[in-house]
Write a sequence for this structure.
């Protein structure tokens, strides 16, 4: 259930407009999102105070509320625009509070952040584990260079909307009530473009292709996401640029298999090497390493090379390389080999 608007602003029902404004200013500064980042309770208090002020600062809305309460406002078609539009819809209020008032019509063009973009990149196994860099082509909308983002033909400028006189709102009468709504001619912007830019068509942004240098840190894995701040689309009316998110897809390797930050491989070993022992050469991510195989090694045994795996992208060390030995059995023997094996079996008691 909604609280009484007078209670929200902590003022008497007989309070003057100046007292109401002063009280709202205090609450707005106390619960402002910039002063309370991530505080949902403060966000709700800020929204509640803005809604109460929107009603009580307007003579007609306040009369309806005083006579019929919240239900009266609902019946008159009043709808609070929501937290996201507080700054655009209360532009004049905040300008009055902080001394930015002006006698000319205020623009309703509130800053809007640019959209984030996604780019999918396919990497070889080695480029992913060792790191790499490349230039990628990203299509996005940026501020039109022809009109500098105004949307108007160079030499001209957006004009004040004649229907709403720059307020972005029009008043409609409905019986005893007067209700404000978004101006259909300027769509709440307060200005219209009489002579649109021939490059962007009056939008103020144009589609471009930008080359972005991408540095892949060592150790990225399939499904990793890289964030490039400010490489998304331009914002509108002074809003910040969006970000570019690069999703990584890693191709499998014919020899190495990644297991977390370890890499695994299988090495074939003859039964003679397994029985007598040997020193073999093993491929690693950074070249070859010698591995000593002890006598009597069985098929499936695992050996480990410390620190020869994948680097942690956050700088927390490096994994290992595990080597599984697979003892191979010859599929064809010469007569001499067969005789020697039979002799070996006889000496072994089998």
């Amino acid at each position: 259930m909604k609280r009484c608007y007078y209670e929200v602003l902590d003022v008497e029902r007989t309070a003057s407009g100046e007292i109401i404004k002063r009280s709202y200013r205090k609450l707005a500064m106390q619960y402002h999102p910039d002063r309370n980042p991530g505080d949902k309770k403060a966000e709700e208090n800020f929204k509640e105070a803005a809604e109460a002020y929107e009603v009580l600062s307007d003579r007609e809305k306040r009369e309806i509320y005083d006579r019929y309460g919240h239900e009266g406002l609902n019946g008159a078609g009043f709808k609070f625009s929501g937290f996201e539009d507080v700054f655009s819809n209360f532009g004049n209020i905040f300008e009055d509070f902080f001394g930015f008032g002006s006698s000319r019509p205020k623009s309703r063009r509130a800053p809007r952040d640019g959209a984030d973009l996604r780019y999918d990149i396919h990497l070889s196994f080695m480029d992913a584990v060792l790191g790499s860099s490349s230039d990628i082509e990203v299509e996005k909308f940026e501020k039109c260079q022809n009109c500098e983002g105004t949307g108007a033909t160079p030499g001209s400028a957006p004009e004040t909307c004649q229907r709403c006189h720059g307020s972005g709102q029009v008043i409609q009468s409905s019986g005893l009530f007067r209700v404000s709504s978004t101006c259909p001619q300027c769509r709440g912007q307060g200005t219209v473009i009489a002579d649109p830019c021939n490059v962007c068509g009056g939008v103020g942004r144009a589609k471009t292709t930008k080359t972005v240098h991408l540095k892949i840190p060592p150790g990225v894995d399939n499904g990793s996401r890289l964030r490039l701040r400010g490489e998304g689309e331009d914002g509108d009316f002074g809003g910040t640029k969006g970000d570019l998110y690069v999703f990584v897809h890693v191709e499998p390797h014919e020899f190495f298999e990644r297991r977390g930050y370890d890499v695994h491989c299988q090495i074939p070993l003859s039964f003679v090497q397994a029985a007598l022992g040997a020193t073999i050469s093993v491929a690693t991510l950074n070249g070859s390493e010698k591995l000593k195989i002890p006598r009597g090694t069985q098929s499936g045994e695992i050996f480990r090379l410390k620190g020869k795996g994948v680097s942690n992208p956050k700088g927390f060390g490096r994994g290992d390389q595990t080597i599984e030995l697979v003892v191979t059995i010859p599929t064809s023997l010469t007569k001499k080999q067969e005789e020697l094996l039979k002799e070996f079996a006889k000496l072994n008691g089998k």
